[in-house]
From TrEMBL:
Lineage of producing organism: Eukaryota, Viridiplantae, Streptophyta, Embryophyta, Tracheophyta
Subcellular localization: Secreted, Extracellular space
One matching Pfam family: TAXi_N
Keyword annotations: Secreted, Signal
Annotated GO CC locations: extracellular region
Family that this chain belongs to: Belongs to the peptidase A1 family.
Name under which the protein is recorded: Peptidase A1 domain-containing protein
BP-aspect Gene Ontology terms: proteolysis
């Protein structure tokens, strides 16, 4: 089975290279591609845009670290393109994406409605809803880190229906899936342009200053990153999936939690591991606003934080939903939180800017939320906790590079984006 999957991947890679790279409109092969990311003030979603189609049209997308691939609402967006190519049933890409069936169209052919094309599920991970859509190819352009425009023909995506965009920010017509699926956006760019199968994300907390996504090689900043393995979850975490599919989300191995260097006791460490049938473990999300923890982990963690905060003179006050532990303070000078990874010497440090939420009236709350007694994943590291952190996802090497807060290095994601020619 593994040999067959490898053969499929190599075949798929050769198809993409032969149909894409040979036609790429760029004077030299780019080393890094970049996309701007801006936080939406109303929904707190992280948004970006690409140019797609012929003639090119801007497409506004919600960024999802764990979605399988790019999907776009073709039904309501007036999708017009002379380079649109629906994927025929039985084609290598349909096999590769594990198509759910063949489509039949009862109206005149158009993007999203063609006969004998493969249907693929497009998931809105914010509302946990989705719909079947037509798998297809079209032209996409992005900027390189040198400022040049790179045209990549034949990027695969799902051409979905209008109802799937409900719950997304205003003007958004789809989702940019950055998951480690074999047809995920990072993998397609890497195969098409022959650079490393890796990308990096740096989210700005500001609704006025861009963050950035890098595809390909760095370096992104001068500071060195720490590294930890990316773990495989043998069971898909998507809303709908085919039996036997592995999760395309990014899991890491949190072994313990320290607060100001002191271990949080009474954590059921079994919950920190991914079970043989899936479940448990720790993943990183741009969809969850705040980090969620299974109830027993959350209670142990919160009680330890409250105790340590008391030793440095921070006064607890009434809870403010959805947060449990809130404090009266004019500053966010609070205990550091360390997610201990493969050893005590490798840890992701969460400082006050990423741990405390200003809810007004000189009250700051610990920005972690009770995830319930039986969540699918024990700890989900939310977007608030990764703002102004640089995260590098190396899919080939299966490892995560992380900076901890860039504020500790006298910089931030807005500055990183500003110097990256986006």
């Amino acid at each position: 089975m593994a040999s067959y999957s490898l053969q499929l991947f190599l075949l798929f890679a050769l198809i993409l290279i032969s149909t894409t790279f040979s036609n790429a409109q760029t004077s030299s092969r780019p080393r890094t591609l970049v996309l701007p990311v801006l936080k939406d003030g109303r929904t707190q979603q992280y948004l970006t845009h690409i140019n797609q189609r012929t003639p090119l049209a801007p497409v506004k997308l919600s960024v999802d670290l764990g979605n399988r691939f790019l999907w776009i609402n073709c039904e309501d967006s007036g999708y017009v393109s002379s380079t649109y190519q629906p994927s025929q049933c039985g084609s290598p890409e349909c096999v590769f994406v594990r198509s759910s069936g063949c489509s039949t169209c009862y109206s005149s052919p158009k993007p999203g409605c063609n006969n004998n094309t493969c249907s693929v599920y497009a998931e809105n991970t914010i509302t946990r809803t989705g719909t079947g859509g037509e798998f297809a190819r079209d032209v996409v352009t992005l900027k390189s880190s040198s400022g040049s425009v790179v045209t990549v023909p034949n990027i695969l995506f799902t051409c979905g229906a209008k109802n799937v965009v409900k719950g997304l920010a205003s003007g958004v017509t789809g989702m940019l899936g950055l998951g480690k699926d074999r047809v995920g956006f990072p993998t397609q760019l890497a195969v098409s342009l022959r650079f490393d199968r890796k990308f990096a994300v740096c989210l700005s907390p500001s609704t006025k200053s861009n963050g950035i996504i890098f595809f390909g090689n760095g370096p992104y900043i001068s500071q060195k990153l720490a590294y930890t393995p990316l773990l495989d979850n043998p069971v898909s975490t998507a809303a709908i999936f085919v039996r036997g599919e592995h999760s395309v989300e990014y899991f890491i191995g949190v072994k313990a939690i320290n607060i100001n260097g002191k271990p949080v006791l009474s954590i059921n460490t079994t919950l920190l591991s991914i079970g043989k049938r899936g479940g448990g473990g720790t993943k990183i999300s741009t969809i969850n606003r705040y980090t969620t923890m299974e109830t027993s982990i959350f209670n142990a963690f919160t009680n330890a934080f409250i105790k340590e905060a008391g030793t440095i003179g921070i006064t607890r006050t009434a809870s403010v939903a959805p947060f449990s532990a809130c404090f009266t303070s004019k500053t966010i000078n609070v205990p550091n939180i360390d997610l201990v990874l493969q050893s005590q010497s490798v840890y992701w440090r969460i400082v006050g800017r990423n741990s405390m939420v200003d809810v007004g009236n000189n009250v700051h709350c610990l920005g972690f939320v009770d995830g319930g007694l039986n969540p699918e994943t024990s700890i989900v590291i939310g977007a608030y906790q990764i703002e102004d952190n640089l995260l590098e996802f190396d899919i080939t090497a299966s490892k995560l590079g992380f900076s901890s807060s860039l504020l500790l290095h006298k910089t931030n994601c807005a500055k990183v984006a500003l110097t990256s020619k986006i």
